[in-house]
Amino acid sequence: MPFLSDTLARVSPSPTVAVSQKAMELKAAGHDVIGLGAGEPDFDTPDNIKAAAIAAIEAGKTKYTAVDGIPEVKQAICAKFKRENGLDYSPSQVAVSTGGKQVLYNALLATLNPGDEVIIPAPYWVSYPDMVRLGGGEPVIVETTLEDGFRISPEALEAAITPKTKWFIFNSPSNPTGAGYGHNQLKALTDVLMRHPHVWVMTDDMYEHLAYDGFQFCTPAQVEAGLYDRTLTVNGVSKSYAMTGWRIGYAAGPEHLIAAMRKLQSQSTTNPCSISQWATVEALNGPQEFLAERNEAFRKRRDLVVSGLNACEGITCAIPEGAFYVYPSIAGCIGKTSAGGTLIDTDEAFATALLEEHGVAVVFGAAFGLSPYFRVSYATSDEALSEACRRIQTFCAGLS
Ligand SMILES: Cc1ncc(COP(=O)(O)O)c(C=O)c1O
């Protein structure tokens, strides 16, 4: 009898974690490594949020809470959805979990049966397909291209839908491309979904606040009210509020789905951290001005990285609408050999040679389901980004 479960064989270890691990090993061995792999803001959690957490500890708010969130945080989430997205939800339609990751995982595990299909546009956030497989479902990957801005077309969505489709996972602005869907682009997708009433929408809005050049964020249930009863709107404080370590994500949707997610969570992790929930109340109800200030810093970095990468021979980089990632194509580098003698036949070979020969850690595109590309996270200092671009230029110039 095998010791490990068959379920485990359906998932692969996170490639983004593997890249960080390798970069750390090289650093520990004394190499000068610039990490552009991390999926988190380099900014600190704002002081008012930290103070709310300290106050919660001092007030003894350190015990178990209601499984899917204290009433105060649910109220703050309902107010956020109303204020920012024009969506009406009551507290019984809201679930709070240990990070956006647990929200998505709960929702998939609570709804998937063997053979159920989940449509995922590629490139995708690394965890979606594995979470679907863990839940016993089948990921249906629909590739997008640099030329169409890494946005799934209505035709491609329509073609991917079958009687077995349970969910369409939507992520805007996207990890790993930063691509965002404007109102009309999203409306074209929701029009397709209106023709297929058995398909539910799981919208991952984690990067909502990280948008540049006047890009107007919108979310499916806001664009098409007809989808409200079959949409799970997922969000969290990790990225916008620089709170990745606090582990709070949340979702709103139909009560019966939220109840199913709560049931699952009650038998796994119980409530998310009580102190982090109080910090989230402050994050959502407190001052929001810092978001615009930080976005201005992110926008400058995006522009710096996009122009630095487009100056590299063989690389083409689009200007994305949001998040803190860019996803350049290396089509012009494939088939060449690096100065260090590595044949660049895949984006993984490109990323490995770049790390080993020039000390720049990026994540290769195959990890996100679309090659030949790589992902750069520009949530790091201007100096590190300029130096990284200089090294990538040298690396590309050395390809022959
Ligand atoms: C698109 C996307 N969704 C969800 C998550 C998970 O967020 P959290 O850290 O809150 O679990 C991430 C984190 O990288 C992400 O990029």
From TrEMBL:
GO molecular function: L-aspartate:2-oxoglutarate aminotransferase activity; pyridoxal phosphate binding
Alphabetized PROSITE patterns for the sequence: AA_TRANSFER_CLASS_1
EC number(s) stated in the UniProt entry for this protein: 2.6.1.-
Species annotation: Marivita cryptomonadis
Phylogenetic placement of the source organism: Bacteria, Pseudomonadati, Pseudomonadota, Alphaproteobacteria, Rhodobacterales
CDD domains: AAT_like
GO biological process: amino acid metabolic process
Oligomeric and partner information: Homodimer.
Protein family membership: Belongs to the class-I pyridoxal-phosphate-dependent aminotransferase family.
Keywords: Aminotransferase, Pyridoxal phosphate, Transferase
UniProt-listed Pfam families: Aminotran_1_2
Protein name per the record: Aminotransferase
Enzyme class: transferase
